[in-house]
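User: Can you predict the 3D structure for this chain?
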Amino acid sequence: MDAVLDGRIDRECERFLYREAELLDARRFHDWLALLSPSIDYRVPVRTTRENKDGAGFSDRAFFMEEDYASLKMRVLRLDSDFAWAENPATRTRRLVGNVRAQAGSGADECSVASNMAVYCFRGESAVPITLTGERRDLLRRIDGQWRLHARLVLLDTTVLGMEALSIFL
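Assistant: Here is the predicted structure, written as structure tokens:
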């Protein structure tokens, strides 16, 4: 994965992430699901403050989110229902994606993309947002001519979320 992508594919990957952020901020979750690979692996591990044996600072057993396509689709369907109590009222979000770094993946239709993100979450009438920042490590695959998110690992900077539940997508 050392090969740097040509400028066109690099820009396509960057635009993919910007489009994804736009869909999530607009709460267009069904459109967002269409950007996902049916075999997606979506993980947000818990950051640890103690050194673990590999020194990474993240748990390999505890996750804020550990999802596949079926569980992500279930979350989206729940958001459409009257049973999404954690999202009543809905969290208003603003996502910033930056420092996008794309590299060629193991195949011609695959790229590995790292990016930094900040998500500002406004709940109810609060004037102060909850801010989540971190690094995302994504694997994009071209399926039927379109880039799809195949894997996402979100490494949050915080150990404590500052919100009751992680009811948004990162």
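The first strand starts at residue 36 and ends at 47. The radius of gyration is 16 Å.
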